[in-house]
Amino acid sequence: MRTEKEIGRDKRSEEARDKHGKKEKDTENNCVERDWDKGGLIRKILLEHYESYYRLAYAYVHNEADAMDIVQEGAYRAMLKADTLREERFAGTWVYRIMINEAKEYLRKNRRDVGELKENLEAPAQHYRDMDLEEAVGKLSEMERTLIILRFYEDKQLSEIAEILEENLSTVKSRLYRTLGKLRAELAKKR
To answer: Given a cut of 50, is residue 21 above it in pLDDT?
Structure first.
């Protein structure tokens, strides 16, 4: 039989859990319930931003099927690792980071010869693209290309880019402006 002191302690801890919106009985259920919430949050983010992730992947690989594969693999990894997400407010940038890493990994695994790359860069008739610009962006390092894609293709703010890349805002700014200088110089050679 439990004493009044034990009953009071249990009641107070239950009230504290209720106050925080989590009435959970044991540690095992805690993990399952939190994982489910994280998984739901990640699923919602993936559905809301699917087109953005596709554009990001396409900017890396310039091929529709490959971009779809990258997004699908990134979504799978995000759902698989949802339990490692530490803070809800960083979920969006966390998923973006996964997509960027998937695109980079895909490029590393699938190195292509220059002829095949040029073939993939050919623009469909309904889309106008500056081939010189795409070629110049393609010559940049992975970090520089990522900055350009996030800033100009995905229209992300510098502060968002700093969060996604886990870099200082000043570092992102200086790298971006240095990269823009490289692009200007490369395009000036072609014209």
So the answer is: no
Spatial CA neighbour of 137 closest among 183, 97, 176: 183
- Amino acid identity for residue 157 in this structure: Q
Average pLDDT, the chain: 77
pTM, full prediction = 0.59
Listed range (20-24, 148-152, 177-181) with the worst mean pLDDT: 20-24
Q: Angle, to 10 degrees, between the axis of helix 91-109 and the axis of helix 64-80?
A: 130
Q: How many CB atoms lie within 10 A of CB 142?
A: 13
DSSP letters of 84-108? G---GGGHHHHHHHHHHHHHHHHHH
Provide the token pair at 29.
């259920």
Give one DSSP letter per residue of 169-190, joined into a string.
Answer: HHHHHHHHHHHHHHHHHHHHHH
CA atoms within 13 A on the CB side of 133: 10
Q: Give residue 33's identity as a one-letter amino acid code.
A: E
Are the CB atoms for 54 and 68 separated by under 8 Å? yes
Q: How many CA atoms lie within 13 A of 82 on its CB side?
A: 20
Per residue in 29-47, pLDDT (tens digit) is 444 444 447 888 899 999 9
